Amino acid sequence: MYRREWRKASLPTCAGCSDAGCSASGQGRIIHRPGDSPLTTGIHVAHPLRMEVEVLELRTKHPFVIARGGQSDHRTVWVRLIDGDGLEGWGEAAPSKFYGETPDSVIAALKVYSALLPDDPFKLEEAERAWEAKLRGNAAARAALSSALHDLVGKRLGVPIYRLWGLDPCMAPRSTFTIGLDAPERIKAKVQEAEEFPILKVKLGTDRDLEILRAIRDATDKELRVDANCGWTVKRALRMLPILDEFGVTVLEQPLPPQDHDGLAAITAQADIPVIADESCLTTVDIPPLVGKVDGINIKLAKCGGLREALRMIAVARAHGLMVMVGCMIESSLGITAAAQVTPLVDIVDLDGAALLSDDPFVGARIDGGQVTLPSEPGLGVRRR
Ligand code: MG
User: Taking a C-beta distance cutoff of 8 angstroms, is the pair 357, 332 a contact?
Assistant: First the structure.
């Protein structure tokens, strides 16, 4: 017998659905009876899930510019999974040009994944594995589906997702607020606009880095963290380290191109502040090769493809003694609220994607004054504005 067949044969069989390996098998299985409240019972959903998608046109208050360029129009994809009882789970896909994604590619991928919607939303692990096996990449689309399934499960059980995971939302660190690349005078104005946020993240990786740091430091004495978005060479980064110290920078994110692990190791060895890998670390498998070369990793749902994978990344990073950061793309409060579910487990939070918008279409997790506040409603707890 081949390994895969052995594994399948060894799994228990569920009396309710006859699926080998169904998580509902054995003692304690909840049976959905006619008349039961759908919010409190029903591991098994009687009807297949249906998917609806809609493109969201988001605008940032200012053009959002980083070392790779910038824009003010950002289109994301709102995914709704609707079950037979009419309950809806929501997720948002924020496509990343850097990873070759567009709203059209997200929608094309969602069409492929929609053929593999689980018969039961509680099969979270199985669903995420099946989507990745069917079509690799397309992490933003898978993240939206993962978020929507978790939202639906939370709503069926009547609890927020973080509560389902046993997390205390009060343990979430404060979020940074990003100051994108701009002319010094405009940067100063942005710093003033960001008055309520106690920690600023500064985008660098240009030939004007010193000028930018000076403009920000002239305007504020707040804690500063720097993200070079792959924009430096090793030589340049080593030259920047004492300058970062001089300006009181406390964290350095992704100074070098993604594959330059040896360069990252050289910088980490010299730096007095934590060096965090972002573009170098997409999923769990990227973590072990970075051990000893950086101090921590930045997890984004749009990179890793879902909440299950985000939890795995946190566990693996912790097992290797790494710091953990959770970040985001430019996305609405829907996507931000999904990412915010893991904030009680991390050291650094950078979830300002919705706070940078002029027209957030959703209400969910907030970062008022930098403090992450998670909704107390079931699932994600997100609603339309
Ligand atoms: Mg980054």
Answer: yes
